[in-house]
Amino acid sequence: MGEGINWPKGFAPGEAPIHVVNRIETRTAPGVVWQRLIHAAGWPAIYANASDVAIEGGGSTLFAGARFTWKTFGIALNSEVKEFEPETRIAWVAIGIGVTAYHAWLITPTEAGCTILTEETQYGLVSRVGRLLFPSRMVRWHQKWLEALAA
């Protein structure tokens, strides 16, 4: 866990109270996965837990330094892309009422397609309460997102 992720200070898995990891192997080409992932305006069509995605300045696709707003798990978030290496990695900080998160994605080519890894760490009262009430909810939803990216 945490291998290959460039965690900002305070967000490393050993420092944050909440840490979720999901991984999937797929025959889908890394470039296809990447395009699906950075097309944030299209997330609601493939990830039912995302809504109201809006990229500052317009557009539908994330880029280095992009700021965007969206809702997930019923929480409105302000996010900013912190890492952006095409077809390899993307990560963003997300801040909302009662939650501060760092969500990172790695796409690693394989002979058959690629491996997609996503890890997220979180702080905040809403995060902790959500984890207590629904301990595996984020893992399940992130896995659904991975499955859609891999399809």
Mean pLDDT: 92
Please give the radius of gyration in angstroms. 14 Å
Number of helices: 4
**Which bin fits the share of residues in helices?**
10-25%
Assess the beta-strand content as a share of residues: 35-45%
Q: What is the approximate shape? A: globular
Could you give a short account of the major beta sheet?
7 strands, antiparallel
Short note summarizing the structure:
This protein is of the alpha+beta class and 151 residues long. The chain has helices at 30-38, 43-46, 125-133, 137-150, and strands spanning 18-26, 50-55, 67-72, 75-85, 89-96, 99-109, 114-123.
Give an account of the 3D structure.
- This protein is an alpha+beta fold.
- Helices cover 24% and strands 40% of the residues.
- It has 4 helices and 7 strands, in the order E-H-H-E-E-E-E-E-E-H-H.
- A 7-stranded antiparallel sheet has the order 1-7-6-5-4-3-2.
- It is globular, with a radius of gyration of 14 Å.
Helix-strand blueprint:
Layout: E1 18-26, H1 30-38, H2 43-46, E2 50-55, E3 67-72, E4 75-85, E5 89-96, E6 99-109, E7 114-123, H3 125-133, H4 137-150
Give keywords:
151 residues; alpha+beta; seven-stranded antiparallel beta sheet; 4 helices; 7 strands
